[in-house]
Design a protein that fits this description.
The protein is of the alpha/beta class. The protein has five helices and eight strands, in the order H-E-H-E-H-E-E-E-E-H-E-E-H. It has a three-stranded mixed beta sheet. It has a three-stranded parallel beta sheet with strand order 2-5-6.
Amino acid sequence: MNLRPCPEWIYIAFGCLVAGIRLVCMSFTYKDGSDVIAAMERLQTCAMVVMDAGAEGEKWAVFRNLVDSVSPDGTAQSKQMPYLRYVFGHEVGTSFMTDVKRLSDLISDDDISDDITLPEVTEDDITFLFQTSGSTGVPKLVAHTNRSILNLRRLCKDNVIISR
């Protein structure tokens, strides 16, 4: 996921949590998209990207060069990212992502089945994969489990301040 702070971010994040999907917050640092390709190669199973175009369409320009095709129904194909199957876009007052299924359409879709079975999610399941700063040139992915996220919540709740 690569979204600016918005209410839809919460829908995607919590939707992934209850569905047992590992959420990765990705950045687009290099104009050639090499950091995105490197992250997708490390992930190997990332099938869906949710993103906004960027203030001037800059993120979409990078990503569009990495995919071979995108369709208004959300499907996508990329030789550079062979596991990619879906791309959903969140437009924030722009018209850069006209050929991509809008995130708002996905969230308000009435064709969602009522007989969805969600998986059991345990404390030791990986919840998020966060990118490092990329000090070696390519950001690494750091896994956080549900337990580690709960522990962070407890630290904040108990007003524990950790300093170095």
